Amino acid sequence: MAKTFSVTKMHIDVPLHYCPGCTHGIVERLVCECIEELGIQDRTIAIPGVGCSGIAVAYYNVDAHNPSHGRALAVATGTKRALPDRIVFTYQGDGDLAGIGMCESVHAVARGEKLTTIFINNMIYGMTGGQVSPTTLLGQKCTTAVNGRDPDVNGYPVHVSEMMSQLMGAYYVERVAVNNTKNILRAKKAIKKAFQNQIDGKGFNLIEVLASCPTNWHMTPCQAMDYIDETAKFYPLGVYRDRDSEEGSARPK
User: Which is nearest to 108 in space by CA: 55, 162, 164, 150?
Assistant: First the structure.
């Protein structure tokens, strides 16, 4: 019988540490498949953030190192400028990229650093116990907002793709999800394009992925997948910036 499906060589074959139903594993596989298909594994450097995303160094079969919390894009900038022939990408959660690392994130985009960022937005601090994150939805319950996020107390959620797409250094910005087959295929296409743009020397590329956190959402894995559809009503999927075609149907006018 012909073999039609196998594990990508770019993903180290070890048990995953993620909670059941967590979609980090899906996104990591997509990233690894894209690296393998593009043939860039020998010159790729992964810079995961801190938190659940930081575990990725155990799974990516490429050179990788962990920066301090929030500093992934600062380290990625230095790495890419020192080694411009390398393909450098960050893999960050919402607390890492949009919270403690927001300064580094905004200015890396504004400078148009030739990088690729995979931004995992599960709208909560996962590893540290389920606190409010910069992208937590209004009314969403967390350990630091037991009655739900209140804008008078916790402020309003940050729309990262909408904000980053307005900066002149942004080359390609798209928000995707990984809760069903159609969305997973679309997410892979977006991730692959973001890597291809860097190969071609094009500016900053950001792929935001709406992901699940069943443990801290207090849901079953199936419920969490359905909930991603609800979050997409607040964080609409789509292309926010694509300078190849100046497409941006989801961008604010």
Answer: 164
